[in-house]
Specification:
rod-shaped; alpha+beta; Alpha-Beta Plaits
């Protein structure tokens, strides 16, 4: 038996016959199950959405448990691990992740499953607590006030300057996004940063020919 055969046998023996006993499996699944439950509720309270996606929260908890089971299986045999890598390489996910926070929670679920599958339960708990604290603290950091959109509908097509003078009293930074005149009606959209919203609307509504004025806010990204 040459050196190559000795190295090959020792390498395979080190990975192939590593049995995972039943108590270790139960402990692993119990710990990852508790962390997955914590992840389920963390997604509910850390994501501020109008429509809560319960199915996605359930999938996060399930992904953590499934990932831990996969890691336990990989530990038992290097042959199984190579076959699993080949099987997973042909999987194609067609669903696009549009919300950045959803991507964070997906990686969180995968990481917890991998760490618990490796038996590092304390690290999994510390990582979960650290991620929660980071999300809460970063959410408290103040950002610039998001701009609002002032929608104007006026029967006075020559009243644009008068309108902008009124806007200038309440907003130092504003920008006309669009203007159109059709059938003697003036339609404008003005981006404003204003604190006294009600006062601005009251003054705009007193202008000559003003038919309708409204302020719209949004929860999208803010331009600095």
């Amino acid at each position: 038996m040459g050196f190559r055969d000795i190295f090959k046998n020792s390498f395979l023996e080190g990975f192939y016959n590593k049995n995972v006993d039943l108590p270790a499996i139960i402990i692993c699944l119990a710990v990852v199950g508790l962390i997955a439950l914590y992840l389920f509720f963390a997604y509910r309270f850390l994501t501020r959405r109008t429509f809560y996606n319960k199915s996605f929260a359930i999938s996060l908890a399930a992904l953590a448990i499934i990932t831990a089971a996969v890691i336990l299986t990989i530990q038992s045999s290097i042959v199984i691990s190579l076959g699993m890598v080949g099987a997973l390489s042909i999987v194609r996910f067609r669903t696009a992740i549009k919300e950045p926070m959803d991507l964070v929670f997906l990686f969180w679920a995968f990481s917890v499953g991998i760490i618990c599958g490796a038996g590092l339960y304390s690290l999994a708990v510390l990582v979960s607590l650290a991620v929660t604290a980071a999300l809460l603290l970063l959410d408290l950091i103040p950002v610039t006030r998001a701009p609002m959109l002032l929608l104007i509908n006026s029967s006075n097509p020559d009243g644009e300057e008068e309108l902008l003078d009124a806007v200038r009293k309440y907003s130092k930074h504003f920008r006309v996004k669009s203007r159109s005149i059709s059938g003697g009606m003036l339609d404008m959209v003005v981006e404003v940063r204003v604190k006294e919203e009600r006062a601005l609307l009251k003054e705009v509504c007193t202008l000559k020919g003003m038919q309708n004025a409204s302020l719209l806010s949004h929860d999208g990204e803010t331009t600095y």
